[in-house]
Design brief:
The protein is of the alpha/beta class. Helix content is about 35%, strand content about 20%. The protein has 13 helices and 13 strands. It is globular, with a radius of gyration of 20 Å. The structure holds N-acetyl naphthylalanine (NPQ) and magnesium ion (MG).
């Protein structure tokens, strides 16, 4: 695929409500979008890096810089690049997986639009809609948490994920479980806030029949997660720790995880995400699609990925209005607890020009 250039866009998207996790509070999404310009079609990719390197070492300005100075030039120098060659062309540049994932997704989207093939069809989707879970932030009080959960259940969300941290864990989970009953699909996400010394507290969560506990320990604590797995009954799911299929293989072999949260940006792209899906499936291990508060661009690709057969748990593929009053694309809506997989060529969605222009804070054109 001949690339004539990449456009980098920064887009400021206010959140409908502050979103608090163990690593901080977000009130707006600072999105880095990549548009791949080719003679046949334009393609879009979303870089999921946060504005600050609080979830992982990448951050939006850094991703824009590494794309501008090191990644885009390599793709231009490679001449015509097929989507499944992008990762190997960029491999000599160490790390920067979220930046690389955005470029690969934009090239893949352009290539698929030119061929009239959907993202889902290309990845191997077997469903035309996927169940959508919702991630609920840390709240000031338990009554406020219960109100928020009640609101999401009223909207029809089939799975609730609660952010936890030391001091906000057993009691909120106990309150949600006792208020909404034992049949509620309920899980927690610590975003690496605990250490092995907290095993006793984490073991108290075993009483609540959780689907999983996500990333209780540090992202480089693979051995410690394997030790924790011997001390608690709740299945451990890894997020931040899994940056490649190799990491997934290590985690499964070590017994550090029984479930994997797949985030295409975190693992370097949708093609690596599919490889992790295939590996987990071969081991009989469930995966689900995580979320990074993506706009409709990243959300469309995530929903297509979540339609693969091994995605047997609801993901954080919430409707657009979970985060944004106005999405960049036609909004993803919740219908009987599911969101539809776009069926059109490529992502099947495109940014709404007037919305994009209204929310864009900067645009950079990188000519081939
Ligand atoms: C839906 C969910 O919980 N996502 C992440 C955490 C997270 C939280 C806040 C974010 C703010 C800006 C960008 C990415 C973010 C990711 C997770 O699963 O761990
Ligand atoms: Mg997580």
């Amino acid at each position: 695929m001949k690339i004539t250039g990449f456009e980098l866009r920064r887009v400021a998207m206010p959140l409908v409500a502050p979103f608090r996790t163990s690593f901080g509070v977000e009130t707006a999404r600072d999105v880095l979008l990549v548009r791949a310009a080719t003679p046949d079609a334009d393609g879009w990719g979303e870089c999921v890096a946060m504005r600050e390197p609080l979830y992982s070492p990448e951050y939006a300005d850094g991703a824009a810089d590494v794309i501008t100075r090191f990644l885009a030039p390599r793709l231009f120098a490679a001449g015509s690049v097929a989507p499944d060659r992008v990762a190997s062309v960029l491999e000599p540049v160490r790390g920067h997986r979220m930046a690389k994932a955005a470029l690969e997704a934009a090239v893949l989207d352009a290539w698929l639009r030119a061929r009239g093939e959907s993202f889902g069809a290309h990845l191997g989707a077997v469903r035309d809609r996927v169940p959508a879970g919702v991630s609920v932030g840390i709240m000031d009080t338990i009554p406020k948490l219960l109100d928020a959960v009640a609101g999401y259940l009223d909207q029809g969300y089939p799975r609730i994920k609660l952010k936890i941290e030391p001091g906000w864990d057993v009691e909120p989970v106990r309150a949600v479980r006792s208020r909404f009953g034992d049949d509620l699909l309920l899980q927690v996400d610590a975003n690496a806030a605990y250490t092995l010394a907290d095993a006793q507290v984490l073991a108290r969560l075993d009483d609540f029949g959780l689907l999983l506990i996500e990333q209780p320990l540090a992202e480089d604590d693979l051995r410690q997660h394997a030790a924790l797995a011997q001390l608690i009954r709740t299945p451990i799911c890894l997020d931040e720790s899994i940056e490649s299929a190799k990491d997934a293989a290590d985690a499964l072999m070590l017994g550090a995880a029984r479930v994997i949260n797949i985030k295409p940006g975190r693992v370097g792209g949708y093609l690596e995400a599919k490889r992790i899906h295939d590996l987990a499936r071969a081991h009989g291990v469930a995966v689900w699609c995580g979320g990074m508060l993506e706009s409709g661009i990243g959300r469309a690709a995530n929903v297509a990925l979540a339609a693969l057969p091994g995605f047997t748990l609801p993901g954080d593929t919430s409707a657009s209005d979970r985060y944004f009053a106005q999405d960049l694309t036609e909004p993803f809506v919740l219908e009987e607890g599911h969101v539809r997989v776009p069926a059109g060529p490529g992502l099947g969605v495109t940014p709404i020009p007037e919305v994009l222009d209204d929310l864009t804070t900067s645009t950079t054109w990188l000519p081939a």
